[in-house]
Amino acid sequence: MSEVLVLVDHVDGAVRKPTYELLAIAKRLGSPAAVFIGAADAADAVVEAVKGYGAEKVYVVDDTEIKGYLVAPKAEVLQQLATQANPDAILITSSAEGKEIAARLAIKLESGLITDAVDVQAGPVTTQSVFAGNYTVQAKVTKGTPIITVKPNAAAPEEGAGAGVKEAFAASISESAKKAKIFASQPRAASGRPELTEAAIVVSGGRGTGGNFEPVENFADSLGAAVGASRAAVDSGWKPHAFQVGQTGKTVSPQLYVAAGISGAIQHRAGMQTSKTIVAINKDEEAPIFELVDFGVVGDLHTVLPAATEEIIKRKG
Amino acid sequence: MNIVVCVKYVPDATADRHFESDNTVDRDGTPGLLSELDEYGVEQALQLKEKGGDEETTVTALTIGPESAVEAVKKALQMGADKGVHVVDDAIAGSDAIATSKVLAEAIKKIGDVDVVMCGLASTDAGMSVVPAMLAERLDLPQVTQGSVVESQGKDFRIKRDGDTATEVIGASAPLLLSVTDQSGEARYPSFKGIMAAKKKPLDTWSLSDIGVDAGEVGLASAWTAVESTEARPPRTQGEIVKDEDGSGATALVGFLASKKFI
Ligand SMILES: Cc1cc2nc3c(=O)[nH]c(=O)nc-3n(C[C@H](O)[C@H](O)[C@H](O)COP(=O)(O)OP(=O)(O)OC[C@H]3O[C@@H](n4cnc5c(N)ncnc54)[C@H](O)[C@@H]3O)c2cc1C
Ligand SMILES: Nc1ncnc2c1ncn2[C@@H]1O[C@H](COP(=O)(O)O)[C@@H](O)[C@H]1O
Description:
The structure holds two protein chains of two kinds.
Chain A: E1 3-7, E2 10-11, E3 14-15, H1 17-29, E4 31-38, H2 43-51, E5 57-62, H3 72-85, E6 89-93, H4 96-109, E7 113-121, E8 125-130, E9 135-141, E10 147-150, E11 165-168, E12 181-187, E13 201-205, H5 214-223, E14 226-229, H6 231-235, E15 256-260, H7 266-269, E16 277-282, E17 295-298, H8 301-316
Parallel strand pairs in A: 1-4, 1-6, 4-5, 5-11, 6-10, 7-10, 13-14, 13-15, 15-16, 16-17
Antiparallel strand pairs in A: 2-3, 7-8, 8-9
Chain B: E1 2-6, E2 9-11, E3 32-34, H1 36-51, E4 58-64, H2 70-79, E5 83-87, H3 97-111, E6 116-120, H4 131-139, E7 143-147, E8 149-153, E9 156-162, E10 166-173, E11 176-180, H5 192-198, E12 203-206, E13 225-232, E14 240-243, H6 248-259
Parallel strand pairs in B: 1-4, 1-6, 4-5, 5-12, 6-11, 7-11
Antiparallel strand pairs in B: 2-3, 8-9, 9-10
Helix pairs in contact in B: 2-5, 3-4
C-alpha cells in the first residue's frame, strides 16, 4: 500500500488535534506516514503521539536551519520527500500556513490542489463547502499527487497503534527559500478554553455586547465552549482578531453555535453556517441571524445570558 | 518603485451566487465588483506610493478575467492606481488557481521590473487564499503574506501577521510579494476627481499570446482538479423563536439546550 503523507501540525512539538484527524483520513487512502518538521529533541514524543493514531511511518526533519523562515522551506522539504516516497496523496491542515505550503508544493510537484476539504473519501474524493456554506462541492485531483488541505473537524481522530517507524529525512534548502524572515514571534496567550476551530460548542458575541464580553464568556464556560466574536466586535478592539468568526476570520463547524448580539451578515454566516445547531440571542426580532437558527431568543443578551448561565450551573449541580 | 496590485472581479457576495451546468461559477448571472478584499491591497499599494513621494512610484492594477472584469481595474484606477492591465482571453475561462497564477506571473513578467507584487487575502468567491503563495513560487519572490500592518523603509518591508498560533513580524527586501488582510486599514473611496482622472489613465488589454502563455495550459479543460458535482445546501429552516419576558427567554433557552443534550 502506498504512503499518504500527513504534515504534522504542531506548536513547538506539541501535536495539534487536526493532525490526528488527518491520520484518520490517511488510513482511508493508504498507509499513513506523518512528516514532522521541528526540533530534533521533540521528535521522540511526536513519534509516540502520532503512532497512537495510526502512523505507520514518521519522517523526522530537523528544522534548525529553516525555523526562522516562512513557508517556502517547508514546501521544499515536502517536495523532496514526495519525490523520494512517491505518496498517493499529501494531506495538510487547512490553516493559513498550511494552505500556503500546499500552494507552493502544488506548483513544485505540478500537482492538483484542493483546499478546505470538509471530508475526504477513497479516490480521493473531497467535499468542500463554498459560497458562504450555501453549496457543497465534490472534487478530485486529476494531475499529479493529490495535495489536499483539510479543515479541522473533518474527521474524528481514531486511536490505534501504527508501526510508527521513525526515519530521519535530510532536505537541502535553497537560499531563495530563506528570503522571507520571521523577525519576531509572540505565541498567543492560552485562554484555558477550547480552540475555536476545534470546539464542539462555540459562543460568539457581536456589537450587541457593547464591549462587555463577560456574559458571553460566563455562558461559554458553563457549557465548556470556545469564545468567538464578530468582526464588529474585533474592529472595536473588544477581542483580538484570532477570535473572529467569518469570511476573513475562522470558519467553525461545531455541534452548537450560539450568536449573541450578532446581526448575521453574509460574511459572518460564511464562517458558521455549517454548524449543526444554531442558537441566537438578539434584541431585534428582524435580525437576519434568526433566519438560520434552530432556536432563537428575542431579548437582551445582558439579561438572558446571565440568567441562562445561572440555570445551567444549577442543573449541572 | 514599481508596484503591481492584483485585483479580482468577483460576483457580489450579497447577491445570489450559483454554478453553471459545467460546474463553473456563473459570472454573468450575478452582478460583479472589485473583490472587497482586494481594495485593501490597492489601498496599501497607494499608501506605499504616497510614502515614497509619489513621483518615482507607479502602481499598476492587474486583473485576469472576462470582459466585465475590466471594472475591477477601473475601480482601482479611480482609487488612484496609475495604470491598468486586463488579461482577457476566451481560453482562460474556468481556470483554477494554478492556471490563474501562471497567467498572473507571465503578465507581471511582461510588465517588467516589478519591486512589489501586492495581493489581497483571498478572493471573495473561490476564496482559496493560495494565489499569492503560488505567484511567489512562480516568480521566485520572497513571500510576505497576510499582513495586518505594513511597514517599509526603502526596499525593506516588514509586516505584522496574526497567525494561527502566534503573532509574527515577518519581512524581506524588494523585489517581493506582499498580501494584506482586511485588518490593514480602511480602503479609500474614489473621489470625484479620481473618477474623472481614471478615464485618461492607460489601460492595456492583453491576450494570452501577448504574454506568451499557451492556451492549452489554462482553462477548464486543463485544470489539475475537477469538480464532480455541486449541490445547493438545503436552506436552513427557521426553528422556534421566543420573546424574552421576565426571564422566560433564559428558561426556554436552557430547556432547548437540555433537550438537545448540550447540558
Ligand atoms: C470583505 C468583508 C469581510 C468581512 N468579514 C467578516 C468576518 O469574517 N466576520 C464577521 O463577523 N463579519 C465580517 N464582515 C463584516 C460584516 O459585514 C458585518 O459588518 C459584521 O458581521 C457585523 O457584526 P455584528 O453582527 O456584531 O454587528 P451589527 O451588524 O451591528 O449587529 C449587532 C446586533 O446586535 C443586536 N443587539 C444590540 N444590542 C443587543 C443586546 N443588548 N442584546 C442582544 N442583541 C443586541 C442588534 O439588534 C444587532 O442585530 C466583513 C465585511 C466585509 C466587507
Ligand atoms: N483573476 C485574478 N486576477 C487578479 N488577481 C487575482 C485573481 N485571482 C486571484 N487574484 C489575487 O490573489 C488573491 C488571492 O486569491 P485566491 O487565492 O483566489 O483566494 C486575490 O486577493 C488577488 O489579489
